[in-house]
Every structure is written in structure tokens, then in C-alpha cells.
Design brief:
Elements (H helix, E strand, L loop, with lengths): L13 H9 L8 H14 L4 H14 L5 H4 L4 H8 L8 H21 L2 H6 L7 E2 L13 H12 L7 H10 L3 E2 L6 H7 L2
Parallel strand pairs: 1-2
Helix pairs in contact: 2-3, 2-6, 2-9, 8-9
Length: 191
């Protein structure tokens, strides 16, 4: 099998390669997994994905495995505990946004039946397959990410700017932004 990958993958970094090969761009319809990516993308703001990826397991443990019901009930004592946790990104604004986002996430679940139903309606429930030839062609944001960002902000979410939302769409497979020569592009596009 041809194992050419997207150029952004550092080939000597096994964790990054595994993330690219098994997770990035795979359509996610599970609410808890969508919530995890949304929170992690928010924490990535201003940092590299590698930083988040290497702290991901610590985040899972610190944030009750991204259970929005539990996170929505976090109080200032829990915020203090998280601020003292060296295994995660200790940013008070991002931590507090995660708690508020959990509350908004639960409201969306109540209104739409699931967050998955809410978010995937923007693409009619199926991935948008792009055909980029190089990573330079891949946008940082699109009209779609602008629209979703605006909707989420209206619903009380924070750290959901268009660039963050586009990264979320890529990670959760709502858009297939693997470059065309990457073996994952063909697999995920069914080509």
C-alpha cells in the first residue's frame, strides 16, 4: 500500500503519525467525541496541535473524559484544581470557556436531540471531500466555518472562532482535507 501522507505530519513522531493515520479526518458522529475535539481545539488556540496531542490523555483524566454533564457542573474549586494541573494547558479563560461550552453543548443536545445532529446538518450529514494538491491550498477558515462559528457564539460558546471551528471540521471528518496524494484521502473519500 502507498503510505504517502499529508506533508504536515512529522514522520518521526509516532503519536502524530498515528493521529493522522487513524483519527484525523475520520467522520465523528458521537457526541462525546465531538465535544472532546471542540474542547481540545479551543485549548489549542495560539498553540500547536502537537502540544495538545501530547497532553490529551492528561486532559481526558482532568476533564472527566470530556463528559459534558460533569464539566457543566464544575465550580471554582474545580477550576483551581485544573489551574494547578501541570499535565494540561493551564489557561483560566480556556478552562472557564470549557465549562460554559459544556452547558451550551447540553442545551444543543436538548434542543436538537444530539450535538451531532446539530453540527452535521451544516453539511447535510456527510463529509465535504476536498481535493487539495498541497497543504498550501488548504484554507484556515471557510464560509462554512464562519457560519458555524457565528451560530455557536450565538448559543453561548467561547473559543470557537472560525479558524478553530475549521480545525474542528477537519479533525472530525466533516471536511476531508487530506491532500489527494495522501493514502488517507482515498480511504476516507471511498475512492
Amino acid at each position: 500500500m502507498d503510505n504517502k501522507r499529508c506533508e504536515w505530519v512529522p514522520l518521526k513522531d509516532e503519536l502524530y503519525v498515528a493521529y493522522h493515520d487513524t483519527e484525523w479526518g475520520v467522520p465523528v458522529y458521537d457526541d462525546q467525541k465531538l465535544f472532546e475535539f471542540l474542547i481540545l481545539e479551543g485549548f489549542q488556540a495560539g498553540l500547536s496541535w502537537r502540544t495538545v496531542l501530547y497532553k490529551r490523555e492528561n486532559f481526558r483524566q482532568a476533564f472527566d473524559y470530556f463528559d459534558p454533564q460533569k464539566i457543566a457542573r464544575y465550580d471554582q474549586e474545580k477550576v483551581k484544581e485544573l489551574m494547578e494541573n501541570a499535565g494540561i494547558i493551564r489557561n483560566r479563560l480556556k478552562i472557564e470557556a470549557s465549562i460554559g461550552n459544556a452547558r451550551s453543548f447540553l442545551q444543543i443536545q436538548e434542543q436538537y436531540g444530539s450535538f451531532s445532529d446539530f453540527i452535521w446538518r451544516f453539511t447535510d450529514g456527510k463529509p465535504i471531500v476536498n481535493h487539495w494538491r498541497s497543504i498550501e491550498e488548504i484554507p484556515a477558515r471557510t464560509e462554512l466555518s464562519d457560519l458555524i462559528s457565528k451560530e455557536l457564539k450565538k448559543l453561548g460558546f467561547r473559543f470557537v472562532g472560525s479558524t478553530i471551528i475549521y480545525a474542528h471540521l477537519q479533525a472530525t471528518g466533516m471536511v476531508n482535507d487530506h491532500v489527494v496524494h495522501c493514502f488517507r484521502h482515498r480511504q476516507l473519500a471511498g475512492e
